């Protein structure tokens, strides 16, 4: 089985937010929740870079480790998913996550922020693949259909890569060699405890 | 004529071409590296331990791109806190069991006199029990968050444990309000009797009379009770402030502040629970005649004489009850 990962090539990201829009549309993500967002660092200054970020599906995921009800699980593809039936909306995963991935439908509404929602790597949840229940709770299950996450598929500059970690790392390495520069795989050290040497 | 114009055009064209090529030469010679001046992930993380930028979506809090500090918090929440909590709570329980087995219940040595004196008014008892009831629910539901997953979940399964934890979370959040009000009431009601004074030094030196049959004199509250009072007031304030910070995310601080709030909240809470176990012990099976102070609100005169001789004197002086006075003053000397 492949180990699924995301990689955002910050030298290619043009902050078009197509990945954000694609994600919201594909999964009919409720108002106020963005499973993916594009963060621009040093905006308007020399050396500005934009990075598209969502759940990185960490190795030894901190969210899963701190969850008081143990509602997270990792699929055979290395995708970190959770059960909204078990989630109690306590917010612990949100304290532990290095990437700000966990979202709550009712932020600020004390005691009832609702079930946590996050990027599923387009892999749905614990319900039967492609079922109506799964779609309502977690959105589309593209992986079950043999497709990769829509955010990366839609990326106009192919900055955002999603798929088998070894393959996307190889693609990135080839790019860096060919063009002669690369600002690295953002978040990889934190999420997977490895970097791509360029 | 035409051939001359052609010649001129060729020369001008050649010069123009040469100039264009010459002008572009330096640019070709220089290797362009756009990342040379760009932001670097590791450098940004070393500076602030977090990376922040601008987002174009309405949720501006999502501008924090990365903050690996969650790793340290995770270590605290899953390892450090369980050790602190386990040692504090089991340690106090073990001490209480040992103490009970060796000392037994502290009896009223003079026996019951049959006459009683009011120790706590109905309002004081109401405030105490409101706070106490909330505290027990808050403690159990809070301990569930830290110890439920390794201890209770394997016993009752995922669905049942989630259902219970969901209700426990609601109870924890909503009962925090009466608990906070209770702490404020306790602070205001009993501050007068809980300022440390000279009698406390003597009481502490004599170990509070816990060992042997000593009865050091005390006013309305002895040094041990004053300690409980300040633990409730300071600890209660700390858990309330940090608890509300967690309950209202982003109102007071960002995630790094919430991680810190959770650390303070949980450490204070487990120590608070450990301290309250001792308080519950001495107020129930640990001492004869103590529970009725918070139960019916009255205590036996002999109990008051042995444990709060100076307070009894004050009360008698105020009431002008000359009858009990000489015996009350004699109490500390015994």
Specify the structural class of chain B: mainly alpha
Count of strand segments of chain A: 6
What is the count of β-strands of chain B?
4
Indicate the overall shape of chain A. globular
- Runs of chain B with pLDDT <50, length 5+? 324-334
So what's the CATH class of chain A?
Alpha Beta
CATH H-level homologous superfamily name of the domain at 115-333 in chain B: Transmembrane di-heme cytochromes, Chain C
Strand order of the largest sheet of chain A: 1-6
Mean pLDDT of chain A: 92
Describe what this molecule looks like in 3D:
- The complex is a heterodimer of chains A (198) and B (334).
- With 198 residues, chain A is an alpha+beta fold.
- Chain A has a single domain (4-189), classed as Alpha-Beta Plaits.
- Chain A contains seven helices and six strands, in the order E-H-E-E-H-E-E-H-H-H-E-H-H.
- Chain A has helices at 18-27, 62-66, 92-96, 132-138, 150-154, 165-179, 188-192; strands at 4-8, 37-41, 49-53, 72-74, 80-82, 160-164.
- Chain A has a two-stranded antiparallel ribbon.
- The longest helix of chain A is centred in the C-terminal third of the chain and has 15 residues, at 165-179.
- Chain A is globular, with a radius of gyration of 16 Å.
- The mean pLDDT of chain A is 92.
- Chain B is mainly alpha-helical and 334 residues long.
- Chain B has a domain at 115-333: Up-down Bundle (Fumarate Reductase Cytochrome B subunit), CATH 1.20.950.20.
- Chain B has 14 helices and four strands.
- Chain B has helices at 2-29, 41-48, 70-103, 122-151, 153-156, 158-174, 176-190, 198-205, 223-247, 255-283, 291-295, 301-307, 309-319, 325-330; strands at residues 51-52, 64-66, 116-118, 298-300.
- In chain B, helix 7 runs antiparallel to helix 9 (223-247) and helix 9 runs antiparallel to helix 10.
- The longest helix of chain B is centred in the N-terminal third of the chain and has 34 residues, at 70-103.
- Chain B is elongated, with a radius of gyration of 35 Å.
- Residues 324-334 of chain B have low confidence and may be disordered.
- Chains A and B meet through strand 2, strand 3, helix 2 and helix 3 of A and helix 2, strand 1, strand 2, helix 3 and helix 4 of B.
């Amino acid at each position: 089985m492949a180990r699924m990962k995301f990689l955002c090539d910050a030298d290619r990201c043009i902050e078009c937010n197509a990945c954000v829009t694609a994600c919201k549309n594909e999964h009919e993500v409720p108002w106020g929740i963005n499973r993916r967002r594009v963060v621009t660092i040093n905006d308007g200054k020399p050396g500005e870079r934009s990075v598209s970020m969502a759940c990185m599906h960490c190795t030894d995921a901190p969210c899963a480790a701190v969850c008081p009800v143990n509602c997270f699980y990792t699929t055979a593809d290395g995708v970190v998913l959770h059960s909204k039936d078990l989630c109690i909306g306590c917010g612990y995963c949100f304290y532990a996550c290095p990437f700000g991935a966990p979202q709550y439908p009712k932020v600020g509404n004390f005691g009832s922020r609702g079930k946590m929602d996050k990027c599923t790597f387009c892999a749905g949840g614990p319900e039967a693949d492609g079922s109506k229940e799964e779609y309502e709770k977690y959105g589309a299950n593209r992986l079950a259909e043999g497709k990769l996450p829509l955010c990366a598929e839609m990326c106009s500059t192919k900055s955002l890569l999603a798929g088998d970690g070894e393959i996307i790392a190889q693609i990135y390495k080839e790019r860096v060699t060919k063009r002669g520069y690369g600002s690295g795989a953002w978040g990889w050290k934190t999420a997977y405890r490895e970097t791509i040497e360029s | 004529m035409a051939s001359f114009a052609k010649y001129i055009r060729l020369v001008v064209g050649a010069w123009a071409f040469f100039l264009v090529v010459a002008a572009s030469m330096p640019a070709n010679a220089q290797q362009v590296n756009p990342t040379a001046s760009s932001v670097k992930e590791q450098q940004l993380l070393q500076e602030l331990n977090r990376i922040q930028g601008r987002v174009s979506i309405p949720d501006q809090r999502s501008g924090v791109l990365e903050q690996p500090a969650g790793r340290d918090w995770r270590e605290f929440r899953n390892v450090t806190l369980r050790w602190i909590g386990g040692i504090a709570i089991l340690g106090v329980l073990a001490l209480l069991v040992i103490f009970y087995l060796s000392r037994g219940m502290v009896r009223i040595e003079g026996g019951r006199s049959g006459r009683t004196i009011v120790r706590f008014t109905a309002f004081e008892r109401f405030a105490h029990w409101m706070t106490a009831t909330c505290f027990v629910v808050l403690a159990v539901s809070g301990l569930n968050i830290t110890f439920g997953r390794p201890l209770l979940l394997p016993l009752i399964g995922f669905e049942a444990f989630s259902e219970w934890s969901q209700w426990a979370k609601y109870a924890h959040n909503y009962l925090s309000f009466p608990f906070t009000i209770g702490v404020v009431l306790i602070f205001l009601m009993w501050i007068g009797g809980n300022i440390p004074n000279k009698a406390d030094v003597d009481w502490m030196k004599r170990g509070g009379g816990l060992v042997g049959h000593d009865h050091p004199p005390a006013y309305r509250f002895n040094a041990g009770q004053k300690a409980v009072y300040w633990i409730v007031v300071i600890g209660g304030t700390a858990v309330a402030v940090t608890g509300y910070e967690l309950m209202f995310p982003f109102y007071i601080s960002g995630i790094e502040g919430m991680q810190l709030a959770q650390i303070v909240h949980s450490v204070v809470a487990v120590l608070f629970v450990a301290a309250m176990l001792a308080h519950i012990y001495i107020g129930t099976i640990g001492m004869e005649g103590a529970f009725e102070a918070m139960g019916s609100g009255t205590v036996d005169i002999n109990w008051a004489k042995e444990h709060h001789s100076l307070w009894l004197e004050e009360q008698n002086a105020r009431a002008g009850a000359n009858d009990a006075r000489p015996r009350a003053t004699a109490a500390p000397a015994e």
